[in-house]
Amino acid sequence: MIAPAHARNGVEAGHGLPVRHSAHPTRRPSRRPRPACRGESVTETIAVKADRLYKAFGRRPHEVVKKMKAGSSRDEVSSLGTAAVIDASFEVHRGEIFVVMGLSGSGKSTLIRMLNGLLDATSGTVTVAGQPITGIPAAQLRDVRRKNISMVFQHFALLPHRSVIDNVAYGLEVQGMGREERLAKARTIIRLVGLDGWADSLPSELSGGMQQRVGLGRALAADTDVLLMDEAFSALDPLIRREMQEQLIELQAELGKTIIFITHDLNEAMFLGDRIAVMRDGRIVQIGTPEEILTDPANDYVAQFVQDVDRARVLTAASVMEPVRAVVTTTGGPRAALRIMRDFQTSAAFVLNRDGSFAGVVRDRDVLKLVKAGDADLRSIILGDAVSVSPDAPLVELVEPSVESDLAIAVVDEKKRLLGVIPRVTLLAALGNVSTNTGDLPVIEPAATISVSMITETLRETALEGAAL
Ligand SMILES: Nc1ncnc2c1ncn2[C@@H]1O[C@H](COP(=O)(O)OP(=O)(O)OP(=O)(O)O)[C@@H](O)[C@H]1O
Ligand SMILES: [Mg+2]
């Protein structure tokens, strides 16, 4: 059973507190990049922008890039140097978690290091908060790094002889902040990253996960808008790693940071990323939301990469739902409902209230009885227990209701408007990554239990004068 989000806490096992774990918690509801608000230009919503970025190592890096721009392949220029990043362009929105994913050697670290100027680009530009950071003097670059971008490393890089609080406050000390002020700030951050009570410990007294919390705390103390994280959780064991991922998401929601996160772990990428850039041999081969990458991979390489993803936790109701076909309104009455069910050969119809909101489901037998009894009010037989889910619900949450009832699951928005339905066969097909392609026939479930002729007969027998069949 999956623990609901509120039951999953970010408490480190080492604290001795009860920790409830799910093997694979579902991905959080997506937070799509925020569109520009009124009075806010698009550039203000873009935290980091890379434009036609190249990095080559080796003897003649500029020659490598020049030849590649002229159409040479990576292999053809290998005698001149290694093209580590090739023609990378993307924009990271403010408040977004942007994941860069790819196999070892695909260029992820090289790319992220150009974003904060740790590595010079061989060609192309990087802009942070609207300011170019490529080709600027070293002093200016240090300034951008201090104010705008901080980095969390895979191996924590803590100062071993300093306490947790001094490690967290280290950057502030370097900036010249007074002792009292920086310790007060560090204390707040220590609480934020879940290290209350450990301020005076040395790094060696902490577990790996806790050490990485210190690393994260140190980056947060710098108060920059952008955090770069290069395989920051890869050295942690799986449970601690998952806790850190969850806590990162909580922190991100609380602090609104822009996070660029590198990983070669696909499930981590899918769990954390608002968008994912997939790299291969130095190139970005696709940028998209986890669902886009899963459902619409740009090429065979990406498709192969994502084939082992736990689809149930990445795909959402909205991405698999079907249009609602057998739909009636409370005001339409039972005869109309019966006719629609007959036409669609289904034993259930979705009912909408007058205001268009989802009211529930009616079954063919109940409607038939109503029609025979001459009762015109559909409302008495609406089954209120039809399952409805939000468009963001991951498929894993749909499995149980789908097993318990043969009714298609209704997908409704926050105003209870019916957006679509998910019949059981559709759910199974999505989970198994097979097509429900039945030619032009729509999926209609549950199948009719009363014959067409019987419905037609009943409608005829009970027809009011002038009522059409
Ligand atoms: N300083 C360097 N000098 C020469 N070649 C380098 C240097 N840094 C990286 N490379 C090469 O550039 C390519 C990309 O390396 P990079 O470290 O960016 O990959 P990565 O995706 O981060 O891999 P990993 O997952 O192993 O960390 C590799 O072929 C690597 O050997
Ligand atoms: Mg790397």
Automatic annotation (TrEMBL):
UniProt cross-references to InterPro entries, sorted A to Z: AAA+_ATPase, ABC_osmolyte_uptake_ATP-bind, ABC_transporter-like_ATP-bd, ABC_transporter-like_CS, CBS_dom, CBS_dom_sf, Gly-betaine_transp_ATP-bd, P-loop_NTPase
Superkingdom, natural source: Bacteria
SUPFAM superfamilies hit by this protein: CBS-domain pair, P-loop containing nucleoside triphosphate hydrolases
Domain ABC transporter: 59-306
GO BP terms, alphabetized: amino acid transport; glycine betaine transport; response to osmotic stress
Keywords on record: Amino-acid transport, ATP-binding, CBS domain, Nucleotide-binding, Transport
Bias type Basic residues, positions: 21-35
A Pfam family recorded for this sequence: ABC_tran
This protein's record includes keyword Transport: yes
GO cellular component terms, semicolon-separated: membrane
Protein name per UniProt: Glycine betaine/L-proline ABC transporter ATP-binding protein
Lineage start: Bacteria, Bacillati, Actinomycetota, Actinomycetes, Micrococcales
